[in-house]
Amino acid sequence: MGLLEETQKEIRPLDAEEAWAADERLNSLTKPPGSLGYLEEIVRRYAAIRRDGSARKGRGAIAVFVSDHGVADAGVSAFPQAVTVEMLRNIAGGGAAISVLARRFGYELRTIDVGVRSDTSAAPFAGVTYRRVGSRTGNFLNGPAMTTGQVRLALEIGVETARDLASAGVTLIGIGEMGIANSTSASALLTALCGLPPESIVGRGTGLDDPGLRRKTEVVTRALELHHSALGDPMTMLAALGGFEIAAMAGVCIGGAACSVPVVVDGFISTAAAATAEKLIPGLIDHLFFSHRSAEGGHARVLEHLKVRPILSLDMRLGEGTGAALAMNVIESALDLFHNMATFAKAGVSGKVR
Fold first, then answer.
1. Tens-digit pLDDT profile for residues 185-199
2. How confident is the chain (354 residues) per 10-residue block, as mean pLDDT?
3. How many CA atoms lie within 13 A of 326 on its CB side?
4. Which are the contacts of 200, defined by CB distance < 8 A and separation ≥ 6?
């Protein structure tokens, strides 16, 4: 039995009793019942995922997986593929948006190269973890993007990342990504997973004009036709259409669930990873928080299809884990209220009459 199967066996349903224990304290705090709205549901779900009615808070971390995609050769991005390695250096060097937010909130930031086309591991960038599955995926217009062996390896890298963070005391993991053309891969996966028309899912990514958007939609449509026979099984679907970083993020979702650590999903591309993880292990989605409703493509329609509620809606579409970082701060704020507000009894405040 491999790591993936062992990890899957460790995943348990959410603990309803611990959610009720958290709810009992929420109802004892100096506020009208339910007046903190969705923040209260966040606390209950956190307690249920953590299997801890006291909802103890540890450290937060963001794992950003970086990889290139062969489908970039089809002209589906407004930026050249060289940007991926440049952004790998920028994220690890502290200059990217996620770098700023991680510093602002005090989160550990792990920048992980799982398949950037330009291999810098011989002269490694400071702050980069090298777990390379390959040098970019194949162009899925010519065949599968990955082998099933590469899919398994990338998933297990994600599982190992989650386990490592959990063992270091992290109780909230955000996932993010960077990779030129990865919104095309995510669009293909989400179209297949949700059964929605490509034109309702495909977005402008890095800023495509109208002809570029039409070309990208055509590429996704052709890929789905080419790989139709692979779409019935999540592993072969991921191999056909996915990316190293998407598979690795799916692995974090699986590993986090096994370790009872909530995983906070970023935006459009991270949602493709989460939806794939749910396809692999039905019910896994209960262990996840969805950070925000992205302005990219059909993200709103996908969230509705998955029946999940995003924490924020800020018209963001950057990726990198930026939405996850902001939502993690909201989750931590909800936990601070839970722990630090006075109860009616302690504050000497009269409770509800009836």
1. 999 999 999 999 999
2. 93 98 97 97 98 97 98 96 98 98 98 98 98 97 98 98 98 98 98 96 94 96 98 97 98 98 98 98 98 95 98 97 98 98 89 68
3. 19
4. 298, 301
Q: 250 near 284, Cβ under 8 Å?
A: no
What residue ranges of the chain are covered by domains with CATH 3.40.50.10210? 59-332
Within the chain, which residue ranges are assigned CATH 1.10.1610.10? 3-55+339-347
Tokens of 308: 């999940």
Q: 59-332 belongs to which CATH class?
A: alpha beta
Q: How far is CA 207 from CA 72, 96, 181, in A?
A: 14, 18, 12
Look up residue 124 and give its DSSP letter: P
In the three-class reduction of DSSP (H, G, I as helix; E, B as strand; rest coil), residue 331 is classed as helix
> Whole-prediction pTM value?
0.97
Nearest CA-CA partner of 65 in 143, 139, 144, 133: 133
Active site residues: 320
Sheet holding 128-130, edge to edge: 128-130, 108-115, 59-67, 170-178, 263-265, 288-292, 310-312
Q: Which CATH number fits domain 3-55+339-347: 3.30.460.20, 1.10.1610.10, 2.20.28.160, 1.10.760.10?
A: 1.10.1610.10
Q: What is the rounded CA–CA span in Å between residue 41 and residue 23?
A: 9
Q: Are 180 and 72 in contact (CB under 8 A)?
A: yes
Query: Please, which residues have CB within 8 angstroms of residue 315's CB and are 6 or more apart in sequence?
Result: 295
Cα R_g (the chain), whole angstroms: 20
Rounded (5°) CA angle 331-253-144: 140
Distance CA 256, CA 199 (A): 33
Task: Check residue 255 and give its pLDDT.
Answer: 98
* pLDDT score of 354: 63
Alpha helices in 168-233 (DSSP H): 182-194, 210-226
